[in-house]
Amino acid sequence: MQVTTTLAETWELLDAARAEGKTVGLVPTMGFLHA
Predict the structure, then answer these.
(1) Residue 17: which pLDDT band, with cuts at 50, 70 and 90?
(2) How far is CA 16 from CA 7, 27, 32, 33, in A?
(3) DSSP 32
(4) For the chain, where are the alpha helices, taking DSSP H only?
(5) DSSP state of 33
(6) CB-based contacts of 14: which residues, under 8 Å, 6+ apart?
(7) CA neighbor of 3 nearest in space, from 22, 28, 23, 32
(8) CB-hemisphere CA count at 13 Å for 11?
(9) In the chain, where are the structural domains located?
(10) What is the mean pLDDT of residues 26-31?
């Protein structure tokens, strides 16, 4: 699992993973409600 904090970092990781033929999944959380 990789955690990103910026949109640019997210796109960089997505592009790299897709270039390797990997599938990318997103798991949104509701952690904000507990903070």
Answers:
(1) very high
(2) 14, 19, 28, 32
(3) G
(4) 7-19
(5) G
(6) 24
(7) 28
(8) 3
(9) 1-35
(10) 77
Joined together, the tokens standing for residue 29 give 């959380």
For residue 34, the SS3 value is helix
Other C-beta atoms within 10 Å of 8: how many? 9
Residue in this structure with the two tokens 């910026």, named with its chain if needed: 6
User: Model-level pTM greater than 0.85?
Assistant: no
Structure tokens at 33: 């409600």
Average pLDDT of the residues in 8-25: 93
Only one residue has tokens 């970092």, namely: 9
The Cα 32–Cα 13 span in angstroms is: 24
Does 29 score more than 90 pLDDT?
no
